[in-house]
Amino acid sequence: MVKIKVGDKFPTFKAYDSTGRETTLDGLKGKKVVVYFYPKDNTPGCTIEANEFNKTLSSFRQKGAEIIGVSRDARKSHDGFCGKYDLKFPLVTDDGGKIGKELGILKITGMHARTTFVLDENGNVERIFENVKAEGHATEILKLLK
User: What is the CATH number of domain 36-144?
Assistant: First the structure.
């Protein structure tokens, strides 16, 4: 069960993408941010979801939004996943599941429940999507962005 609600400040985190570059929400102040948590790189649902976000990325950016994908996979796995599908947004590692635990979305399996948070320009939660169905999810979010 998600521990934060709409209107709450999203927890600050520092994580690293597949290239080792640090990703923080502070670096995205002034932009909407879609932070989507997924179970595992290179699995069918996660591949569909990543490819759909990638395909619609320019439309998200036209609306002033950035995408960040988060899983427990290692940076090397993210690097391969990004390379295989030419993903143009960062996938970051939730090392030790710290972020997932804080949000209440870490399953007993140690993987994240498929959950998406839409943050406003100040880092506050605008929308929460739980038990996400991968196919069509990126388009669903894109339609909601103003």
Answer: 3.40.30.10
